Amino acid sequence: MIKAVRGTRDLLPPDTALWNFVESAARDVFRAYNFQEIRTPIFESTELFARGVGEETDIVSKEMFTWEDRGRAESEKGNSLTLRPENTAGVVRAYIEHKLWDHGLNKLYYIGPQFRRERPQKGRYRQFYQIGAEAIGPASAGSESPARDAEVLEMLATLLDRLGIAGWNLELNSVGCLNDRAAFNDALRKALEPVVGKMCTDCQRRAVTNPLRVFDCKVPADQPIIDTLPRISQFLDEACHTHFEAVKEILTKVGVPFTLNDRLVRGLDYYTRTAFEFTHGALGAQNAILGGGRYDGLSESLGGPAAPGIGFAIGEDRIVMSLQESSTAESMLTKPDVYLAPLGAGMNAQAARLARELRRHDIVVDLGDETFRLKKSFETATKAGAKYILIVGENEVKADAFALKNLATGEQVSVPRADLPNKIRE
Asked: What average pLDDT does this structure show over 224-243?
């Protein structure tokens, strides 16, 4: 038997009802903040992620699904393509390619699958799903303002509350600007020199290529050493410090609680200034459900104009896991309002006609078959969770009135065709 590839999975009913609930809530909240949907390709040029995400990040160096294009045209051969491991770089690429700033499109969101060659574990898959948004544009549109950072964070707090996820925690930090990062990296290299030999091989490599990434380490034995290292908060220049203070002030004013975490650097090289994660205790040690930050130089690094921005990605797989702690997918699954039971030869056509009429009134209809005996129709309607069963037989069609039975109470009444929609909705 052929099974799903390791690290992937099928999303099945009734669990898909939870996924639809999350995505519908996200669309509603994003709409209220004037974000518009964008859909980018699932694969892009590998160079996009190498330049945008950073060649020394774990994502680019170890986790991407990459292959050489074997296109028929000579111009296509040898091109390196990659399944998107994240979506921010693709959104910024589209922003530049289509000059979206000319159309006033500065707030964009996406929903879709991403791909990373990670070790599969609870809540982490090689094909996983993200809901994300990017607020990007020229500085003249306010995209550089700390007010934009606070608005995005307040929007996320609103979404988590709307989903009913209680007990979330917002962890906040500033990773400064490029000059701050350069000074911080120099200090990290000096601090790591005498101790890096005691750390894992990844940290030994990172200490040379990109010291900031040492803070991504999850090896327990390395944590006491990491605790002694300098913090980025000690290296913020006046402009970055002022920006971060303004973000915190607005969040306090609007009532969004947060905790400061000066070890938080996020896993991508394009972040500047504000960086954040929302965590939830129901997920155990790997407790982050979403994260993001500001990326003021990303557009320029991809050949575009100056376009300060801030964005985030929600791990949809993990947010559904959080919801499962308090909600059952079964309770969100759409059940039929009525099951139509055609009885006798020639009744399939009559039942189909009646089902079409009812569905035009937004009534959820499940349709049986004229070959079913009445007992089987009742069993099928009950198994489907229908509220009513509607008998469509020759006598009912002649009278243009149909037997409607409430499967919970057993009450049965004859209802004229024209009155059926209102009676079922009652």
From this structure: 90
Q: 134 falls in which pLDDT band (50, 70, 90)? A: very high
Retrieve residue 156's tokens.
């996320």
Instruction: Examine residue 14 and say whether the peptide bond preceding it is cis (omega within 30 degrees of 0).
Output: yes
CB 138 within 8 A of CB 96: no
Farthest CA pair distance, the chain: 93
For residue 225, the one-letter residue type is: I
Nearest to 334 by CA among 8, 10, 24: 24
Angle between helices 15-32 and 146-163 (to 10 degrees): 150
Q: In terms of CATH architecture, what is 15-177+237-324?
A: 2-Layer Sandwich (3.30)
- E strands along 155-227, which residues? 169-174
Phi-psi region of 167 (alpha: psi -120 to 50; beta: other; left: phi over 0): left
Amino acid at 315: G
- The residues pairing with 107 across neighbouring beta strands, listed in sequence order, are 135
Cβ contacts of 12 within 8 Å, gap of 6 or more: none
d(CA 130, CA 149): 20
What does the block give as tokens for 167? Answer: 């007990």
Helices 178-192 and 201-209: crossing angle in degrees, nearest 10, is 130
pLDDT tens readout for residues 59-89: 888 899 999 988 766 666 678 999 999 999 9
How far is residue 209's CA from residue 203's CA, in Å, rounded to a whole number? Answer: 10
Domain-by-domain residue ranges, the chain? 15-177+237-324, 335-425
CATH topology of domain 335-425: Rossmann fold (3.40.50)
User: How many CA atoms lie within 13 Å of 43's alpha carbon, on the beta-carbon side?
Assistant: 12
Question: Distance (Å, rounded) from C-alpha 70 to C-alpha 192?
Answer: 44
What's the whole-model pTM score? 0.84
